[in-house]
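Hi,

Apologies if this is the wrong queue. I'm a grad student, and the batch job for Beta-ketoacyl-[acyl-carrier-protein] synthase III from Iningainema tapete BLCC-T55 produced an output file that my downstream script rejects. I'm not sure whether the problem is my script or the file. Here is the sequence I used:
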Amino acid sequence: MQMGIAIIGSGSAVPAAILDNQGMTQLVDTSDEWITTRTGISQRRLASSGESLTSLATAASLEAIAAAGITPQQLDLILLATSTPEDLFGSACKIQAELGATKAVAFDLTAACSGFIFGLVTASQYIKTGVYQNVLLIGADILSRWVDWQDRRTCVLFGDGAGAVVIQANQSDRLLGFELKSDGRLNHQLNLAYTPEKQELTSSIEVGKGNFQNITMNGKEVYRFAVQKVPEVIDKALFHASLSVDQIDWLILHQANQRIIDAVAERLNIPQHKVISNVAYYGNTSAASIPLAIDEAVRQAKIKPNDIIATSGFGAGLTWGAAIFQWGR
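Support response: The file is valid. Your script probably expects a header line. Output copied below for reference.
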C-alpha cells in the first residue's frame, strides 16, 4: 500500500533586531510611505554578525519537532531549503549535529524563494516510496548578508528568518496536489551571481577566484511574472487535487510583496479573510517566508486540523510552484 504524508508540526525563529522603515530612511533616500505603498513592508528582522543560519534553523526545528511530538532521534531526513548557506558545501549537516538527529541524513536544497515548496514535494517522495517515515523540512535564509544597502530597489525588501515543519508518513495522503515549474531563460531577472577574478597560476593556466555579488533584481519583471504565473500554477495544483478555489480555507503565498499577494488573491477570487500575510513584519525572508507564515497562523489558532491550504512559492531561477495540503494528520 502506498504511503501518504501529513504535516504534523511547525516552528519558526527570527533575529531579535528590527529595522523599521523609519530606520531605513537613514540608509537610503526613501520614506515609510514609499516602501509601504509599493511593498506592504513596515519592518524586517536582521541577523547580527554573531547570529547564524544554523542557530536560526535549529531553533525553528526544535519548535517543529516539539509540536510534532517526536524526538530528533526519530528523524530520518533533514532537508534545508536555503540560498544562503554558511558553507558552500551545505549547512544541513551542521543543523543535524546541533539537533542531535543522529539517525537522519541531511542535505541542502536550493530553489530560492520557491525552496519550501520544492522541499515539500521532495520530502513527500521519500515518504511515499516508503524510504523514510519522519522528515524535517527547514526553510531558512539570511539575505541581509547579500543586500546592497545603498540600493533602495532591493534593500527595503529583504529580511532574515527560519521556519520548519515535520512531515510524517500517514495512511491518508494530506498532500492533495502540487505543480512545480522552472524557466532558466528568465534567470537574469533575479540573481545573486558569482563574479570571477582572474588568477594566473602558471603562464598557461588561469583560474577564476572571487566572491558573490549583491542581490540584483528587475522588480517590474518579477512582479509581472509572479502575478501571471502564480495563479496559473495554483490552478494546476488544485486541478491535480480535484478541488475548486472555493474549497480552500487559506491562501499562503511566498511573502515577497503585499501587492503581489493581493493581485494573486484577486485573480483567483479568494477573499481577503482567507489570505494569510505577515510580510509587513518580516519582509521577504525567501525560503523561510511560507513556513514562518504557516507557523504563526497555527500558533494563533487560525489554521486548524483538516484546513485546506493553498500555498505557492516563486522567485530566482526563475522557479515557481504550488502545493495544496490539509493541515495535520
